[in-house]
Structure formats: C-alpha cells, structure tokens
Amino acid sequence: MSPFACKPDRRPAAVARIAGTVPALALAVLLSGTAVPAFAQSAMPVESAPMDSVQVGEAHLPTDPLAMAIARELSVNTTVMLNASANAGDEEELELGIQGYYENRVYQPLWVSDQGLNPHGELLISAFEKAGDHALDPADYAPDRLRQLASAATDTDGLAQLEVAISNTFVTYANHLTAGRVKPNEVNRSLNLFPKAPDPAVLLEFVDTSEDFASAIDGLSPNTPNYARLKTALADYRAKEAAGGFTVVPEGETLKPGMTDTRAEVLRTRLAQQDLFTPGSHSGDVYDGALVDAVKLFQERHGLEVDGVIGKNTLAEINVPISTRIDQMELNMERRRWMPDDLGSRYVFVNLADQNLKVVEDDKTVHTTRVVVGKPYHATPVFSDEMTYAEVNPYWTVPYSIATTEYLPMLQRDPGSLLAKNIRVFSGNREVDPWSVAWGSYSRSTFPFTLRQDPGEGNALGRIKFMFPNKFNIYIHDTPSKSLFDRAQRSFSHGCIRAEDPFDLGQALLGSDGWTKDKLEAVRNSGERRVIKLSKPMPVHLTYLTAWVNKDGSVHFRRDIYDRDKVLAKAIAQLRPANL
C-alpha cells in the first residue's frame, strides 16, 4: 500500500536549503566545480563522514564528480517542472523537499549512473510515456525531452541535469496522480475539496527504498476499485474509438415498443458497440423483444427514464460521440484523485450528478434511495462532513435568501399569506403578528425577521431530517413533494438533499442505535419533535461524478447538470505545458 494514501503533509526534520546549512566558502567551492581545498577539509569534522563525502556542520558535501555536479544543478534548476502543475503545492516547499532529499543522500543519483540512465530512470520515463493510461497527458512530463537529455548526457554535468530533471518531473507526475492536476476549489468554489500532494522528500525516499520499484510507481494512483475499474473502462473505450467508435442512429419519429422502423438494424449495431446488445438475439425491423430490453438497459445506465421509448432525450444520449464519453471518463478519473482512498468503514455517499444516495458498510451498499438535489442556480456543493444527529418532526427555519426573495414579496402583497403554510414570523425569540408589520418598508437587504415553519405534513423538510453540520447549511431531509422522485432528472431544491424514502434511510443510519423504521414512524405519528443522536458520527460524502463503473463492470454516464465537466475540462486545458 502506498504511504500516500493519507497524503502526508510534512517535511523531514533534516530538510533544509543547501545555502542555509553549508558554510559560504565550502558551498562556493562546491558550486564552482573544483575540489574542496585541503585547508577547508581540515576544518571539517570527518569522523562519521561517508567515504564519498565530507561533513560541514550538519551538512554533507560530496566529493565524487557526479554528486558534486548534482549539487550544482540543484542550486539552479530545482523548479524546472514545478510550474507545470496547478496542483503542485507551495513551490518553495517543493524545492526544499527535493533539495533536502538529495542532501540527506549526499547528492548521490537516483535515476542515473556514470553510464547514463539506470533501470529506475528508464522505468520512470516509460511511466511518463504511459501517463495516458491514467487520463493524464504524457506531454506534461516531456518524456521525449528527457530521452534527448539522456542521449546527450556524455559528462557529469549532462548526467546531473538529467537526474534533476527526472526528479522534478517525477514530483509533478506524482502530484498529478495522487492529488490531481488542478486545485478543485480554485476551479469551482462549490468544490470544497483540498487534496494534498505528498511531500517530495518522503516521495523520493519511498520510491528509493521500495523493493518493487514498478509497483511503487503504480501505487501512487488512487488505491480504490472505483478508480481501477474506470481506468480499465477508459482503455476499452479508447479501443472502441480506434475501431470506429459509435454508429449514429438517424433521427425520426419517437420509436415505441412494437413499432416497425428501418432504424432497428442501425440501433442493434449501435447498442452492440456499447456491449448492451448481443448480436443475433434480434432481427428484422420490428422494435421489440431483446432490442427493447437493450434500450432499457441503455436508459438505466445513462440516467434516463427507463421505458424503452426512444424519444428526443434517449436518441440524443445514444448519439453522444464516443470521444465525449472518453472525455467524461478522463474528467472523472481526475475527480477520483481528489478523493481520499479511505471513505470510512461506514458512510453516506451522494452522487449529485446521479441524484442518488447510498449507505455503505464495509464496502457493501446496504441502502440506496433516489434524491432531489439543488437546481443549477442553487447547485449543491461538493464536500465531506460527519452526520451527528437526526430530527423527527423538525421545524424549518427558512433560509434568509428564500425568506427575502420568495416570501417577502408574498408578505408585501398579503401579510396573512404564510399562515396557511404554518410559517410564523419572529424577531429574535419573540413571535410577531404579520399583520402588525409594514412589510413594504423592508427590502432584501434590510429584512430583520426570522421565518419558521411548524412541524407537520406540509413542512418543507417533511417529517425527518439528517444533520451533518456544515458551513453550507446543507442536510438531507424528507419532503412533501413526493412526485418529483418519479422524474429521471431531479435537480429542484435550493441546495439541500431530499430523500425519497427517509424513514427507510433512517433505519439504515440509526438501526445500529436501536432505531427501526417502525420506531421512527411512531415518533413521527406522535407529533413529538425528537432529536436522535448517532452514537458514532458517520462520514457523509457529497460528490459529483458523471461517469463511473459498477462492480459488475457496467459503465454509467450522467448529464453534466451543473456544467462542472465543462469548467474542469477548461481548467485542465489551460494548464501550462511542461517546460523542460
């Protein structure tokens, strides 16, 4: 297992700049490329120095030519690749980490020998060349340029330049594999994820001391089945693209089961290309049987209404080019790199793009439910927190934005308009008669009141809510608007998450604390407002994935309801290319 699963955020105590630890005279001599004078050596304590170095204070100075050349190269060329990564972290810290690693090993090379590239260096450049397997761009790591440097490295200075260039490139590559190419929160403020790349010194030491170097490099990517399955599917879709991609199904009238249409043959070909239809299981122009079943399977895997009817929406999804699907996979591999490998032994996972929630225990999904998420204008943010309690028969304190944009105009027209909704007006803790207020004198910026809805059937939160306190005031709750769950696309809320079967969900979340669905519903029926604390906080992960692969190998895609794919693709495209 990679030591970066927890993405370490620390530097070894010994890491320090060369210039900060080596006396000026000795450093100047070292960087000049000449041997250390005898009078300088005599001033250095050498009792514990390695055979290939001398010691000055707490630092070691190399004496063999290649190590000396590496030290010189590090002093001028540490940041050659760091600017290629928008998610590289603090540049000075990275520079310190790389220099500190080499200082601790007395500037001995990791990737080269006196004869040129060593096996580790060769294997690493090969990994750069295959970066596309991880949905990364090999050009960002300039393998061709590194091989040119290797071919031209005929002396110690050339080898040192190659050594440092490979280390700098490797740090960038490792950052991209472990934490992604971009900083999520800078791409979109709704993405409250802050992945941390590994410390360069720890990273270099890890690969240096690994018994299986190839496995160590491979282990830098997310160590999760979800990432591995998506990586495999990406390779499969690229092969499909190379074989000709997806056939376009012509437009025509809405195709319903039982109809006859000459497009049936094209449809069979198209669905077989996505492994949804078995050739030979259907023939002719009648749209029925196995072909309808294949279309329903397509609809299920693309978040459409599963009715077997090929209307405008289904046909549009069928005709999405395979190149677009590959782009989706690549973007979602980036998103997977933002997430920790360990989501917890028991957690709630909400995919906002899929508009579904699942409860997971020991890597097994124990409960699923459809959910309603925020409208595009009120997009639900991506973040993780911990659920601590549930509340049956809750009050609803109306958010200020809703109170001022939706309810204030109603109160200005009719002060009694909210009474039918069981919404009361408060000034501090004091209830206010809505008829006593001159509502016309208030605006969105001067509204001083709190609106609160009493518990009951019409409460906007329904009869139960699940709280994971966070700065966004987002939570999961019941809703009186049950009909919305019948729709394939369910982005209708102001940001919170509405659950279709909240009391079944309550049992999944609180059952280990003795709260069955029947007990929760009994509290609901009593009308009592009841807060129920979880004995152990449960992680809640709100995510946004438009492509993923299930355990059975089925590949799923979803509409980009918040346009986050577009924003992420643009951010990645704007990254500065590698500049070796």
TrEMBL record:
Pfam families, per the entry: PG_binding_1 (PF01471), Scaffold (PF20142), YkuD (PF03734)
Keyword ATP-binding found: no
An example Gene Ontology molecular-function term: carboxypeptidase activity
Active site positions: 477, 496
Entry keywords, A to Z: Cell shape, Cell wall biogenesis/degradation, Peptidoglycan synthesis, Transferase
InterPro entries listed in its UniProt record: LD-transpeptidase_YkuD-like, LD_TPept_cat_dom, LD_TPept_scaffold_dom, Peptidoglycan-bd-like, PGBD-like_sf, PGBDSf, Transpep_catalytic_dom
PROSITE patterns per the UniProt record, alphabetical: LD_TPASE (PS52029)
Keyword field contains Kinase: no
Pathway: Cell wall biogenesis; peptidoglycan biosynthesis
Annotated ranges, domain L,D-TPase catalytic: 346-523
GO biological process, one term: cell wall organization
Family: Belongs to the YkuD family.
Name of the protein in question: Murein L,D-transpeptidase YcbB/YkuD
